[in-house]
Amino acid sequence: MLESNTVELRGVSKSFSTNGKVERVLNHINGTIENGSIVTILGPSGSGKSTILSMCNLLLTPDEGDVFIYGKEVRNWNIPELRQTVGIAFQAAPMIPGTVLDNLLLPASIHQMNIDHPEQFLEKVSLPESLLHKNVQDLSGGQRQRLGLARTLVNRPSILLLDEITSALDPSSVREIEHLILNLHKEENTTILWVTHDLDQARRVGTHSWLIVNGELVEHSPTESFFTTPKDDRTKQFLAKGM
Ligand code: ADP
Ligand code: MG
Fold first, then answer.
1. ipTM
2. Ligand nearest to the CA of 43
3. How far is residue 206's CA from residue 200's CA, in Å, rounded to a whole number?
4. Residue 53 CA: which ligand 1 atom is closest?
5. CA separation for the pair 104, 195 (Å, rounded)
6. 33-37, 168-172, 192-196, 233-237: which range is least confident on average?
7. Which ligand 1 atom is at minimum distance from the Cα of 43?
8. At what angle do helices 141-153 and 171-188 cross, to 10 degrees?
9. CA 17–ligand 1 middle distance (angstroms)
10. Which InterPro entries has this protein been placed in (predicted)?
């Protein structure tokens, strides 16, 4: 039964302590993500969305409960194998000084993989091959974002974690990135956890949607019913105000 879900969170809690003060940021999260779904994760700033993503590829470990990836507890995965299976992309893709190619091959060099035809990954994100030897400093914001995504794809992850990847882009670049990801999803059946603060985006791209408020998963439904017939009052409030 467990194996049918790609990602499963069971009773996941997490606290951080800052200056001796302990703050509980996730409180017994239970959620399952089916293979091939796109779950858009919404919630006010600071509600714990990025923390959830970080626990799916062991950037953080839960204090209580467990995250299962393909039925196996994340802490029992071999880290390089996990990071190849579960890719993550952020709003500001960190780049090393050098060329587009240097940056594209960074994960491959970490995992000592040989990549034939690295330009194929630029193509996947609609960047021209002619950029390969360009310095990353000379890329536009949209091009950097796409390069970050291309670099995440080099490992051919079957699960993608996207953390507000379009929030710094202009509307037409936002649509282009959405289009790229939806194509990838169609071609490879990638399972996607997509944190966004853009309600319209969450509705456009999601198959399912979650709302996190104060470290609690208050609503998880198919995207259409999440937006049209939310069950929880906090969801109704969130959708009305955008919070
Ligand atoms: P969101 O992505 O929903 O904006 P986060 O998951 O980033 O929220 O953060 C949830 C809460 O946890 C915030 O209050 C944040 O300040 C705190 N937090 C996140 N990471 C750390 C950390 N490494 N150390 C201390 N506090 C953290
Ligand atoms: Mg965040």
1. 0.98
2. 1
3. 10
4. 6
5. 23
6. 168-172
7. 3
8. 10
9. 11
10. AAA+_ATPase, ABC_transporter-like_ATP-bd, ABC_transporter-like_CS, P-loop_NTPase, PstB-like
pTM comes to 0.93
Work out the average pLDDT over 45-66: 96
Q: Which strands sit side by side in the sheet containing 64-69, from one edge to the other? A: 21-34, 5-18, 64-69, 72-73
Under 8 Å CB-to-CB from 225, ≥6 apart: which residues?
none
Tell me the CA–centroid distance for residue 129 and ligand 2, in Å. 32
- Is the Cβ atom of 144 under 6 angstroms away from ligand 1? no
Q: Tokens standing for 187?
A: 């071609």
Contact status, residue 223 vs residue 191, Cβ threshold 8 Å:
no
- Integer Cα distance of 230 and 113 in angstroms: 46
How far, in Å, from the CA of 212 to the mean position of ligand 2?
11
Q: For residue 136, what are its two tokens? A: 């990353």
Report whether pLDDT(185) > 90.
yes
Q: What is the token pair recorded at 122?
A: 């630029």
Q: Which domains does the chain have, with CATH numbers?
A: 5-241 (3.40.50.300)
CA of 51 relative to ligand 1 center, distance in Å? 6
Residue 207 structure tokens: 């198959």
- DSSP run (H or E) holding 22: strand 21-34
Identify the pLDDT of residue 243. 53
